[in-house]
Amino acid sequence: MSEVNLTDLVREKIIHKLIHAEYRPGHAFKLREMTESGEFEGISQTPIREALLQLVAQSILVGQRGFSIRVPSPTVESLAEVRGIRIQLEIMAAAAGIAHWDGKRLMELTSIHRDMMKAKKAHDADNILRKNVQFHFALYEPANMPYLTSMLRQLWAITGPSIRYLYEADEPLVLDGRHKHEDIIEALRKRDLERLEEAIHADGMLYGQKILDMVHEKLSPEALAIQPFKRIEGTRKRAHIGKLIKLRNAE
């Protein structure tokens, strides 16, 4: 397998793990540990490093010269921004595919949701996360819009690690009442675009707000005062600007 293909393979594996909250916020990627792990076994450090740098360039991961590449520690503001964008793109994808929801597709989506609810009753956090992702990406599929789906994957990769905050307690978060996924399914069944948009927005806002609340609780005043890592390109740019200032002063 070529080096380029290995880089693509590693990048997609990391994105998958980010989307499914398998990496926590602040997780540091260590090349030696990754090459020795079963998942990346047999892959050299070069394609792994290249994949990580590509994800930094996409603002999915963060890095700074002299520091390891990490999963960003979230801020309330950044998560709120990404959540808002994701909700709007989800509505766009669902609206584009609303006419293609036949009985078979609806049964499959309903089955995914039921499996997720069973996982909630069993307090199986990993399966809750897995089924929730499966539900949302099944929602995008009928639109057949690969560029839009790619953008949504990137947003999920950014927000995924923070979703784990909902399930760090002994018992996963289970909200009372009718789940918003059921409203989404019902709107698709009736092909009710207005209700579909409302249900997707409500689903994103409800659980998104719970995540934001937990992030805010976890950030101490000291942590709030720490500036997050800047992108590697930003470090180079500042160094370049510094050189220009010195040259001008010398003149």
Task: Describe this entry's structure for a reader.
The protein is mainly alpha-helical. The chain has helices at 3-19, 31-36, 45-57, 76-97, 103-121, 125-140, 146-163, 180-190, 193-218, 221-225, 232-250. Helices cover 69% and strands 0% of the residues. It contains eleven helices and no strands.
Q: DSSP strand (E) fraction?
A: under 5%
- Structural class, from helix and strand content? mainly alpha
Instruction: List segments where confidence is low: pLDDT < 50 over at least 5 consecutive residues.
Output: 220-241, 243-249
Separate helix tally = 11
Quick check: average pLDDT? 83
- Gyration radius from CA atoms, angstroms: 21 Å
The N- and C-terminal alpha carbons lie at a distance of 54 Å
Fraction of residues in H or I helices: 55-70%
Sum up the structure in keywords.
single chain; 251 residues; globular; disordered C terminus
In short:
The chain is mainly alpha-helical.
List the helices and strands and how they pair.
Layout lengths: L2 H17 L11 H6 L8 H13 L18 H22 L5 H19 L3 H16 L5 H18 L16 H11 L2 H26 L2 H5 L6 H19 L1
Helix pairs in contact: 1-3, 1-7, 4-7, 4-9, 5-6, 5-8, 8-9
